[in-house]
Every structure is written in C-alpha cells, then in structure tokens.
Amino acid sequence: MICRSFLPFVLLLLLTMTIVAQSYPKLYSHQWLNNWQSLHLLDEMGGQFPLHCLKERMKFKLPAEMVHPHQFQQENATEAIHDLLQHIFNVFSRNHSQTGWDEATVEKFLHGVHKEMMRLEVFLEEEMGWENSTLRRDISLHIKSYFKRMMDYLKGRNYSSCAWEVIRMKTKRCFLVIYRLTRKLKK
After folding, report:
1. Nearest to 45, CA basis, from 97, 91, 103
2. Which of 51, 61, 91, 187 would suit a FRET pair with 160, their CA atoms being 20 to 30 Å apart?
3. Where would one find the signal peptide in this protein (predicted)?
4. Other Cβ atoms closer than 10 A to 113
C-alpha cells in the first residue's frame, strides 16, 4: 500500500529530473554567449592593462573551489555562476568615474550581467526549486570574501583608475572561472 502511494511521487521526480536535464544545454548556450560578450565588453572598456598601473597590482586569490571546479555538479555550478555574477554586478555598480571608461560600455556590461543573473534565477526557481540551495555554504562564503577583498582594495585606493584596472583584470579571470563552470552545464 505504501509503495503504491510513492509511485506518483517517484514519477514526478523522474519527470522533473528529465525536464531539468533537457534545460541545461539551453542554459549552457545562453551562458556561454553571455560569458563571451562580457569578456569582450571588459576588453572594450579599458583595452590593455596600463603599464603605469603595474605597481598597483595585488594578488586576490580566487577560492580554490573556483580555480578547480571539478567537484561541482550542474546545479552547484549554476548557483556558483549566479553568485559570481551577482558580486561582479555589485562591484561594477560602484564609483568608476575616475576610470575614463565609456559609460555606455559599462552600462551595456552591467545590463548583460544583470540579464544573465535574472535568467539564472528563473532557471533555479522554476527548474530546481531554488529555495533548497545546493551550493555549499563555505563555497558561497569564500566567493563573498573574495569580492569583499576586491571592494576593500578599491576603497583603500580611493577608486583610482589603476585600482579599477586591477579589478577589471580580476573580473576577466572570474569570467574564465564562470566559463569553466559553464562547461559543467553542457554535460
């Protein structure tokens, strides 16, 4: 009797897993294109790293889980990408007036990042019931800590153009990590 009552639940679970599995390739292609566009816009913002800013460089160690994301499952990768994009959006929404960057390019970059965050949120809520986060709390805290160090660096350098150039380069590295995580969505 108990087995019979579980049958609809098991069927629903299998159906949900099948739908989610079919959704990942579409999410992968959107995310891959967004990564490419974001990297292109970051290049367009400032071009090559200014030589006079070399003395400003500072090491921000990405969390080890981000550098080698082999342990991530698809749902973890999706949440980690969302976390990274959210923090990138927050950083680039700050005072970048001293950079000399084209404001339209910065806005286009922010718009693309925000649009992808929203797409991921909808995916996570509709496909996975996002209220039950699968991203380990320690990974989320490591990501948050990494971006806090970025913000402290910017603040400590009074949002100088060289400090922003360092952040722009570090953000490009974040998008390479996002690309690695995005590959998890393809499988």
Report:
1. 103
2. 61
3. 1-21
4. 24
Distance CA 8, CA 174 (A): 42
H or E segment and range at residue 92: helix 74-92
Write the DSSP string, 49-91.
PPGGGGGG----PPPHHHHSGGG--HHHHHHHHHHHHHHHHHH
Could you tell me which residues come within 8 angstroms of residue 94 by beta carbon, excluding any fewer than 6 positions away? 151, 154, 159
Where do the domains of the chain lie?
Answer: 25-45+56-185
What pTM does this model have? 0.79
CATH class of segment(s) 25-45+56-185: mainly alpha
Cα(139)–Cα(142) distance, rounded to whole angstroms?
5
8 A C-beta contact, residue 130 and residue 20: no
* Whole-angstrom distance, CA of residue 1 vs CA of residue 156: 66
